[in-house]
């Protein structure tokens, strides 16, 4: 039992921090521009594919740095020459543009790298168990993922709260017109933040690709969950995205590990259910089987109790 709890908690932390790397950039972009960027998961996928290609030529460490930078530059260009031009037509036009960008990214990935999954594997120097406990082991690469994710969180927190640039960004989130009157180039701030958010998504793809797989549909696997994280945490709240990411990561990881159904619980308590009764098949469904929909059930619950999200204070 201790083994199950420990490894589920560690895996939940890894998955949760990975979600935070994706959702933090999306949260900043929404807080500034008021648009949910449907192409955000596409930048995550590009990060994995760029790293896969660069690793073959330069090695893992140069790819870890270069791939997110390339994705960040691409994201900044998308904002400067695409999203900024449709901004004056309203949020619907922005949503349509980002949705189209997501489709284009997926098609370009399939055209450039093909449809089959790529053999983007864990680097050899990190491919060993960090520790063993009973019959299980925790891979060193997952510890590396957790370390990178925590470092990104500390970096974001320090930049947003301790630097002048961070103060300008936070002010632009809530009072863009006032920031502009103080002499700051708000559109340039938007472009930089969009690029940073895209780079964070690309970094998540770099470190997640060897574990979760590098294939053309990888953006769809995490894309919807990232939007759930942003809504649960509160639209525009980075701290809310952090808490929601950990919450969803830990809840879903524990759910996957629990092969328990209502039928088995009641049977263990000496309360047998009628095998021919109504909805008898429903009582046999295990928690592990409903784990994929856990984030969405949590989303519905949070929206019923607190429609603005855990840390949300306003809507756009």
Question: Your description of this structure?
Answer:
- The protein has 12 helices and 2 strands, in the order ααααββαααααααα.
- The protein has 316 residues and is an all-alpha fold.
- It has a domain of 215 residues.
- Strands 1-2 form a two-stranded antiparallel sheet.
- The protein is globular and about 70 Å long.
- It starts with a helix and ends in an 11-residue tail after the last helix.
- The mean pLDDT is 85.
Question: In summary, what is this structure?
Answer:
With 316 residues, the chain is mainly alpha-helical.
Shape: globular
| Neighbour order of strands in the largest sheet | 1-2
Question: Compute the gyration radius: what is it?
Answer: 21 Å
Number of helices: 12
Name the structural class.
Answer: mainly alpha
Helix share, percent: over 70%
| Sequence of secondary-structure elements | HHHHEEHHHHHHHH
SS strand fraction: under 5%
Task: Please provide the count of β strands.
Answer: 2
What profile does the largest beta sheet have?
Answer: 2 strands, antiparallel
- Unreliable spans are none
Whole-Å distance between the termini?
Answer: 45 Å
Would you tell me the overall average pLDDT? 85
Oligomer: single chain
């Amino acid at each position: 039992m201790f083994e199950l709890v420990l490894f589920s908690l560690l895996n939940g932390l890894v998955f949760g921090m990975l979600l935070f790397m994706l959702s933090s950039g999306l949260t900043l972009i929404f807080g500034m521009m008021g648009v949910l960027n449907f192409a955000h998961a596409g930048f995550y996928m590009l990060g994995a594919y760029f790293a896969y290609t660069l690793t073959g030529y330069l090695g893992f460490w140069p790819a870890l740095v270069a791939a997110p930078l390339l994705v960040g530059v691409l994201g900044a260009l998308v904002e400067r020459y695409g999203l900024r031009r449709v901004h004056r037509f309203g949020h619907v036009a922005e949503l349509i543009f980002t949705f189209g960008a997501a489709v284009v990214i997926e098609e370009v990935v399939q055209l450039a790298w093909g449809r089959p999954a790529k053999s983007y594997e864990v680097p050899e120097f990190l491919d060993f168990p960090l520790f063993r406990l009973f019959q299980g082991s925790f891979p060193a690469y997952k510890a590396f993922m957790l370390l990178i994710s925590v470092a990104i969180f500390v970096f974001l927190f320090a930049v947003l709260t301790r630097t002048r640039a961070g103060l300008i960004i936070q002010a632009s989130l809530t009072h863009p017109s006032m920031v502009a009157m103080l002499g700051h180039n708000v559109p340039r701030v938007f472009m930089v933040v969009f690029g940073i958010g895209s780079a964070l998504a690309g970094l998540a793809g770099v470190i997640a690709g060897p574990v979760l797989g590098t294939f053309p549909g990888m953006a769809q696997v995490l894309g919807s969950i990232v939007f759930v994280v942003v809504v649960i945490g509160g639209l525009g709240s980075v701290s809310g995205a952090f808490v929601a990411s950990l919450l969803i990561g830990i809840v879903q990881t524990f759910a996957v590990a629990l092969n328990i159904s209502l039928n088995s619980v009641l049977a263990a308590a000496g309360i047998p259910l009628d095998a021919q009764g109504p909805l008898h098949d429903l009582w046999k469904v295990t928690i592990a089987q409903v784990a994929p929909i856990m984030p969405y059930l949590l989303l519905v619950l949070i929206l019923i109790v607190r429609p603005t999200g855990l840390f949300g204070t306003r809507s756009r």
